[in-house]
Write a structure and sequence with these properties.
Layout lengths: L1 H8 L4 E5 L5 E6 H11 L8 H4 L7 E2 L4 H9 L7 E5 L5 E6 H6 L3
Parallel strand pairs: 3-4
Antiparallel strand pairs: 1-2, 4-5
Length: 106
């Protein structure tokens, strides 16, 4: 329940699921929540965010250009609105949002 409150309170629409070493395990979005709720109904309250998250999220490294992030977000199979920014050891160092890229003029 704490993660659901966090997801909605920040207005970002995405939680990064990380391990104890800050490595990306997955992403959890309001879309993941809706899909899980539809599939499991009341059973959702027995699931952890780690079980519901996308365990193969798209990521980007800090050395990439913003336009490359936009292309990665628009790539098939479906567009995404968030990209975790990772270093060479898969450690989270930030997040790029579609809203942020659009606000920056892309």
């Amino acid at each position: 329940m704490d993660q659901l409150v966090e997801l909605t309170s920040k207005g970002c629409g995405c939680l990064l699921v990380i391990d104890d070493d800050y490595r990306v395990i997955g992403t959890f979005t309001d879309g993941d929540l809706r899909r899980t709720l539809k599939a499991s109904k009341e059973g959702i309250f027995k699931l952890t965010v780690g079980k519901m998250c996308n365990r193969k999220p798209r990521t980007i490294t800090a050395d990439k250009m913003a336009v490359e992030a936009m292309k990665a977000m628009e790539a098939p199979p479906s567009p995404v609105q968030f990209l975790p920014v990772i270093n060479e050891e898969n450690i989270v160092i930030g997040i790029v949002t579609l809203h942020g890229l659009v606000s920056a003029g892309l």
